[in-house]
């Protein structure tokens, strides 16, 4: 091994051997980074072998592979994260060149990030999920020279509505993921950091790395926190012992595995108290599983139950009859005012807090063979503890303009805001143009105000090939996109399935995240 020392604490080389790992250990190296893909050439030592042997020497090993000339921003971001956490690092590839190049790129972006401190942006957006990216793209469609900073520590971006279909065996999980660097709009600054504090009186936010970022307009689009820990024993058994959830990228494939393999026994699906994102998702998982069991002749050997902490099957009554047809078709036992509070994975038992007609609370125990959990949900801690929230912990905004009630240059949309709409991607699709238009108006000192009507949509996948497309606004008012003769209103249709399976994913990646506002041009207040 010809080891080239780049700095006192960082070196590179060509492909290493296990003997080289021993040498690096003796030199005090604490982290090895491999920058070449496995099987790049015949006889190449697999990274897994390097990692396993390095672990015996108390050396961490990280794989950040890319082919020559094909380094991506996401590779640099992962490299930066890895080297921040270690002090004596060795990286290797085929010749050492790629490792040198990615090191230089990491240093350049680090210097660029340090120059950002105390810089003022026209717009700072906290959160690069659906709401944050869609808003940034819509702002740039209106005013290309807007200086935007997106703040988000994640390296992955997910199309979360697709996880229902992953759990139903329709999609593969990897089709719902992109590198964050590949979906961040051009002409924006992405800071891969976490926000610690808001200082609305000073128009600044403080980051976990100690930096302070200033803004003219602030957008809070931080999403929602899945509070798995609120259910005793759940985190210890997720992904094992028949416990799954379509609310996580890595668990949705396990939902399909359980559904496909379950031959008999008891399947339980749960829904926590509101608010949650996509209120129909717990039911969607159940319907798709039941449809599979029915079509494979297994449903009559299964006992399927739905435990809902709420009092009704669905919040908009017009859609309940269509859903009840499927509840009866699949012979589902429904239990309302039953909240999952504990899971004993090894013994396959679920515990529910239930309220009887007199208001008395008790704990009941149920055995299961498959348990699909929707976790309780709340705002992220850094939001909950900020000066931006209402008494319930959600960002306090006007439900029509999405403008903060106390700070006129702060806006919020998506799951983290307190607007009384369904927390769905479809809601964000309408909210983002409203926020974008109002921000551009504010930057240009115009008085016009765009308004959001509360639209949300929940495509309820009641069987493979049919969906009840629930569309409604504030107060549960029905707001169908298509005429009843085309979509049959509140009934299950094949058209809605085609929309969800074939059209919406491409619409999301190539339309919504690019600032295209088909069917959602914002309305202006009269």
- Counting DSSP E segments of at least 2 residues, the number of strands comes to 29
Let me know the CATH homologous superfamily of the largest domain. FAD/NAD(P)-binding domain
Between the first and last Cα atoms, what is the distance in angstroms? 73 Å
CATH topology of the largest domain: FAD/NAD(P)-binding domain
How does the major sheet shape up?
Answer: 7 strands, mixed
Q: Specify the overall morphology.
A: globular
Please tell me the CATH architecture of the largest domain by its name. 3-Layer(bba) Sandwich
The CATH class label of the largest domain is Alpha Beta
Q: Could you tell me the strand content as a percent range?
A: 15-25%
Protein name: TIGR01244 family phosphatase
Cofactor: FAD
Keywords: FAD, Flavoprotein, Oxidoreductase, Quinone, Transit peptide
InterPro entries: BLH_phosphatase-like (IPR005939), FAD/NAD-bd_sf (IPR036188), FAD/NAD-binding_dom (IPR023753), Prot-tyrosine_phosphatase-like (IPR029021), Sulphide_quinone_reductase (IPR015904)
Q: What does this 3D model show about the protein?
A:
This protein has 526 residues and is of the alpha/beta class. The strands form eight sheets. Strands 6, 7, 10, 11, 12, 13 and 24 form a seven-stranded mixed β-sheet that branches. The chain has a five-stranded mixed β-sheet with strand order 1-2-5-3-4, sandwiched between helices. A five-stranded parallel β-sheet has the order 15-22-16-17-18, with helices on one face. The protein contains 14 helices and 29 strands. The radius of gyration is 25 Å and the shape is globular. Strand 12 (204-207) and strand 13 (212-220) form a beta hairpin. It is 29% helix and 25% strand. The model has no long low-confidence stretch (mean pLDDT 93). Helix 1 (18-26) runs parallel beside helix 2, helix 3 (73-84) crosses helix 4 and helix 5 packs parallel to helix 12 (425-443).
């Amino acid at each position: 091994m010809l080891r080239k020392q780049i700095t006192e604490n960082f070196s590179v080389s060509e492909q290493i051997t296990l003997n080289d790992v021993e040498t690096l250990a003796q030199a005090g190296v604490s982290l090895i980074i491999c920058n070449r893909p496995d099987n790049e050439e015949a006889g190449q030592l697999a990274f897994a072998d390097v990692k396993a042997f390095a672990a015996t020497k108390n050396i961490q090993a990280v794989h950040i592979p890319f082919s020559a000339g094909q380094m991506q921003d996401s590779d640099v971001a992962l490299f930066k994260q890895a080297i921040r956490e270690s002090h004596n690092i060795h990286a290797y590839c085929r010749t050492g060149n790629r490792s040198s190049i990615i090191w230089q790129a990491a240093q350049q972006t680090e210097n660029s990030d340090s120059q950002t401190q105390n810089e003022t942006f026209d717009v700072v957006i906290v959160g690069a999920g659906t709401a944050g990216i869609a808003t940034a793209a819509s702002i740039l469609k209106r005013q290309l020279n807007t200086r935007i900073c997106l703040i988000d520590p994640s390296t992955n971006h997910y199309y979360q509505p697709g996880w229902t279909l992953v759990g139903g065996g329709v999609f593969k999980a990897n089709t719902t993921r992109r590198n964050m660097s590949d979906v961040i709009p051009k002409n924006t600054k992405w800071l891969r950091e976490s926000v610690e504090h808001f200082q609305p009186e000073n128009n600044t936010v403080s980051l976990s790395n100690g930096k302070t970022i200033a803004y003219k307009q602030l957008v809070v689009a931080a999403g929602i926190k899945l509070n798995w820990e609120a259910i005793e024993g759940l985190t210890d058994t997720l992904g094992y012992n028949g416990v799954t959830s379509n609310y996580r990228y890595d668990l949705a494939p396990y939902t399909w595995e359980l559904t496909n393999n379950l031959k008999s026994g008891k399947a339980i699906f749960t829904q926590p108290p509101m608010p949650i994102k996509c209120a129909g998702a717990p039911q969607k998982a159940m319907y798709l599983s039941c449809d599979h069991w029915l079509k494979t002749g297994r449903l009559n050997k299964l006992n399927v139950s739905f435990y809902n902490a709420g009092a009704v099957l669905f919040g908009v009554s017009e859609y309940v009859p269509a859903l009840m047809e499927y509840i009866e078709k699949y012979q589902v036992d429904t239990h309302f005012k039953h909240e999952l509070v504990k899971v004993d994975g090894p013994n396959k038992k679920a515990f529910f807090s239930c309220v009887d007609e007199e208001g008395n609370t008790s704990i009941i125990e149920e055995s299961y063979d498959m348990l699909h959990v929707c976790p309780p949900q709340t705002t992220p801690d850094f939001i909950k503890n900020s000066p931006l929230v209402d008494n319930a912990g959600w960002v306090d905004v006007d439900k029509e303009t999405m403008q903060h009630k106390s700070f006129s240059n702060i806006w919020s949309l998506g799951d983290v805001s307190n607007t009384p709409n369904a927390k769905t991607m479809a809601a964000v699709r309408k909210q983002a143009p409203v926020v974008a238009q109002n921000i551009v108006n504010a930057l240009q000192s115009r008085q016009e105000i765009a308004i959001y009507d509360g639209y949300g949509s929940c495509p309820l996948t009641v069987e493979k090939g049919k969906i009840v497309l629930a569309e409604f606004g504030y107060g549960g008012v029905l707001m169908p996109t298509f005429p009843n003769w085309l979509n049959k209103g509140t009934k299950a249709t094949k058209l809605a399935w085609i929309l969800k399976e074939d059209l919406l994913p491409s619409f999301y990646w190539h339309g919504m995240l690019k600032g295209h506002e088909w069917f959602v041009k914002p309305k202006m207040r009269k």
